[in-house]
Amino acid sequence: MKVAVFSDTHGVTSPMVQAVRETTPDVLVHLGDYERDAEALLRAFPDIPLYHVCGNCDYSAKAPARLVVQFGPVTALLTHGHLYHVDFGRVDSLVYAAQESGAQLALFGHTHTALHEDVGGVKVVNPGTAGKGRNLTWALITIFENGGIAAEIRPLSL
Predict the structure, then answer these.
(1) Of 13, 99, 106, 152, whose CA is between 20 and 30 Å from 6?
(2) pLDDT tens readout for residues 133-150
(3) In CATH, what number is assigned to the domain containing residue 102?
């Protein structure tokens, strides 16, 4: 299973849409900032399941601040990250929340800095920013039938 993960699009949707067209993922994830950008994904790809959460710039958001979902055999915690204080360079609160949720994968944004690492038995992935900054990035995550997880940070271009 291929999961395309985007965050912090801040109104810039065309690079994200192009990446989805090029990779044809099985699932889409938008981690906030802006909720309407997730809705643009839904309009462009109505046949691909979409999960999204709100970010700190999503005022009056309809989306939840966090979701726990299944990607095949893998449980994933999805959040923007600001409620877990990831902007201070630490992911310990996020990892703890993932562990408490029974998640093997934690997806977050907010920092605009791409990251993927294993912490405390949890694969932690931040796709970076897909809309605001000099280095636009997104994450392609592959979930294997045996529960294995591979994450790759990919560049986006305007």
Answers:
(1) 99
(2) 889 999 999 999 999 999
(3) 3.60.21.10
